[in-house]
């Protein structure tokens, strides 16, 4: 959470850019301008904000590529069991909980002296009234301190940052469905235990310190899983596989049967359906592992039976229900494609773990030797034709030099015959494949 300063106000986009102290200003849409006294309907950004205004904002989406973070003034503070929304109202309960549990938790929250809104998290399943009340009171005290701090600092400045990653993971993911939490360092292990002793004492016994010989991520296969997120190909249990390609506009996933040819007597339809059902589970797993967001198009193997198509889509939706990230699945298109969207809030492992290749510039391919040689011959010929004298000294990179000098310099001799001049090649390792520079030219 930051105290930011409004930069540009763009009436045409109904948005403003806010400086929060990062390398890029954050983007604040008019719908996210929420605070006490701000009207909720018929609003225009120019009526609410002007350049130089100081506002309290929070990021809802990390900076990605050339874009800054997405901001909101609908501030929220997350606890172990509830999320406190100071400018909100009412009580919302996670839809992932069973109806009876949702009613119980709503009744508990209804008895609290609420000032603002409250969202009950999935982790609150089984929590007592005392647990909920303690969590809410801690968040209320935190909120009371933040405006006071905002008055004391000069924008842009950070007002509040959530707990470190280990505590955030425990807060967001640890529930009664988790059997064990394994930590490989004493300090975060102790921090987690202290946090749970305050918020969920019964869960503290599920946390243990790892003391094995192998690194934790290697011992449990996490390192291998992380590396696998950079592969285009993801295997399926029965021998099929997925091909996952990222583009600027969307992610495209192709399902292939591969070695899954079925057993004797199996129909092609049965084999395709089995592969597609496995793919539905694996697609969701890969979406989570790779943190893929935006538009996703899945090309399942064609199935003639409408019942099988519905089963595959149902398996995909069932797997997505376990995904904490918001998703939407559209109907199967006339071409047999499943289209879906997944909320994109941060860079995935591909963006974090890789950098743009100097050779291909991110396109994923380089020019063939034949293409490079043809381009080099043309570039050398153009350079030689523009120089006076019978001999021209041309600088090229090592790859082009080797190509032109191969087979006794046959390609270079062809260029010499074409321009009617002698060409002397020199290596300049700073040049790219297509770059050619004339070093000197002299008459003989």
Walkthrough of the structure:
It is a single chain. With about 450 residues, this protein is α+β, with helices and mostly antiparallel strands. It is built from 12 helices and 21 strands. The protein has helices spanning about 45-50, 100-110, 130-150, 165-175, 185-200, 215-220, 220-230, 270-290, 305-320, 350-355, 370-385, 400-420, and strands spanning about 1-10, 15-20, 25-30, 55-60, 70, 75-80, 80-85, 90-95, 115-120, 155-160, 180-185, 205-210, 235, 240-245, 250-255, 295-300, 325-330, 335-340, 390-395, 420-425, 435-440. The strands form 5 sheets. It has a 6-stranded mixed sheet with strand order 13-14-15-16-18-17, with helices on one face. A 5-stranded mixed β-barrel has the order 1-2-3-5-4. The protein starts with a strand and ends with a strand. The mean pLDDT is about 85.
